[in-house]
Amino acid sequence: MSFKVISLVLLSGGAACSLAQADGLSDIRAIRSLTAEGSQVIRLAAQHRLTAAYARAMKQEARDQLVAELQAAKSNRVKMLAGEAIDALDKNDAGALGQIALRLFAMEGPHERAD
After folding, report:
1. In angstroms, how far is CA 74 from the centroid of its own chain?
2. Where are the domains of the chain?
3. Eight-state DSSP code of residue 50
4. Average pLDDT of each block of 10 consecutive residues along the chain (115 residues)?
């Protein structure tokens, strides 16, 4: 094998690893964002700063997206947290959603935030 072929194989393997990490990171970020948004909607609705219909629609949209993220996630831990977020959203538990968002934020690690 030539040096160029070996270099290409090593580079492509590294790229695949980076893509896998990026996919996992994007799952974490998406679920974190949805949990934080759900928490905020519940808090604003409790303060009567959102109409009930709007809050209900926003929570349903967040729930639908969380279900899609749960189904698409590769990591069992991320799937578990998405499931916990769905349960907390169903219970209107803004505090639990906030705690899940913090756990997901910690899982992001030293990467720069996307938002």
Report:
1. 12
2. 12-108
3. S
4. 40 40 77 96 96 96 96 93 97 97 89 56
